[in-house]
Design goal:
The chain has helices spanning 2-21, 92-127, 133-166, and strands at 33-38, 40-41, 45-61, 67-72, 79-80, 85-89, 168-170, 175-180, 187-188, 195-209, 218-222, 228-236, 247-253, 266-273, 280-283, 295-300, 303-308, 310-314, 318-322, 330-332, 346-349. The chain is an alpha+beta fold. It is rod-shaped, with a radius of gyration of 44 Å. Belongs to the membrane fusion protein (MFP) (TC 8.A.1) family. Keywords: Coiled coil, Signal. InterPro entries: MdtA-like_HH (IPR058624), RND_pump_MFP (IPR006143).
Length: 350
């Protein structure tokens, strides 16, 4: 009898444990809410690059004659006006050469004056038949040779005066000195670059594009005040850079230019890519990067499904993606890191 009572109590205890292990229906977690948004088509694709502000004309400054630099009147970053003195050579030898050329010219002019007077006198004597025609012809040749000597000496004198003027290098146009290479006391040759003068009246942005990319024709430079300056492609290098394998492109900048844009400064450039396929604009929170590629979660019939996408551009709040999906399709906007394929959700449209 005691055995049967013990067995009955054990069965009651076991039955109570099984009932307590089952979860009541009301204790199961509810289907979560998710905030969704509809896909919207994005505008033209833009790529962001770093560019350097350059002058449209960056002219190396050089002497037309060789010599030793006596003075330097400029520093890097200095603005100069047309006609400002940049460098000056030691002109002692040039002055001596110019004085010698002037003396040679005076001597040739004196010789021409003597030959001219003698020819005139002999012509009078020929008229009186005191001298022969052969003597007159000889004097005419001598006078012609003396005149030629004057022309030669005059040209050499002009050349020496020009060389003396070349001892001072002046700015041909207004601009900013971006680089100074030489120092006083240095001997320089003809055409050797001494400095670089960039004309800041026409600014350009120099951008290095990756190899194989089609250079966009247009774009813009965003300014700190929210404005945008349009840029247009002016030239593209004929060959890739040997080291970086990138292509140098120059984009002309439409003025007027704000004071914040200075030569040599680095700016952000947005270049508009030609649309080949449709792209979409989604919130940053809609991107899920747990997989091998970025993905978004589609909501259909109360369930979520992941879809791999290509990220084209990232902004502060939105991303531009490319995927085989139609616009107006609802996707999850927040909490994508908590989702699993086939998970049941309830939409809370934004």
């Amino acid at each position: 009898m005691r055995f049967l009572l013990t067995l009955f109590i054990s069965l009651l205890i076991l039955s109570g444990c099984q009932q307590s292990a089952e979860t009541p229906p009301e204790a199961r977690p509810p289907v979560p809410w998710v905030k969704t948004v509809e896909l919207k088509e994005a505008g033209p694709t833009s790529q962001r690059f770093s560019g350097t502000l350059r002058g449209r004309h960056e002219v190396p400054q050089a002497f037309q004659i060789a010599g030793r630099i006596q003075q330097r009147f400029i520093d890097p970053g200095q603005r100069v006006e047309k006609g400002d003195l940049l460098f000056k050579l030691d002109s002692r030898d040039l002055i001596a050469t110019a004085e010698g050329a002037a003396a040679d010219l005076r001597r040739a002019e004196a010789a021409l004056a003597i030959a001219t007077n003698e020819l005139q006198r002999q012509r009078e004597l020929v008229g009186r038949q005191f001298v022969s025609e052969q003597t007159l012809q000889r004097l005419e040749l001598a006078e012609r040779e003396a005149r030629s000597q004057v022309e030669t000496a005059s040209a050499r004198n002009q050349q020496a005066q020009n060389a003396l003027g070349y001892a001072e290098l002046k700015a041909a146009n207004a601009g900013v000195i971006t680089e100074v290479i030489v120092e006083p006391g240095q001997v320089v040759g003809v055409g050797q670059t001494l400095a670089v003068l960039a004309e800041d009246q026409s600014l350009e942005v120099e951008v290095f594009l990756p190899q194989g990319s089609n250079p966009p024709r247009q774009g813009y430079v965003p300014l700190p005040n929210g404005e945008q300056l349009a840029v247009n492609l002016r030239e593209i290098a004929g060959a890739a850079d040997a080291r970086s394998r990138s292509w140098r492109a120059r984009y002309s900048l439409e003025g007027p230019y704000p004071s914040s844009l200075t030569l040599g400064s680095v700016v952000s450039v947005r270049l508009m890519q030609k649309q080949t396929t449709a792209s979409h604009r989604v919130p940053l929170g809609a991107l899920d990067e747990r997989g091998e590629t970025p993905q978004v979660w589609l909501v259909s019939d109360g369930m979520v499904t992941p879809l791999a996408v290509e990220v084209i551009d990232l902004g502060e709040e939105y991303a531009q993606i490319r995927a085989n999906i139609n616009a107006t399709t609802p996707i999850v906007a927040l909490g994508t890191h908590l989702l699993t394929p086939g998970m049941a959700v309830r939409e809370l449209a934004q």
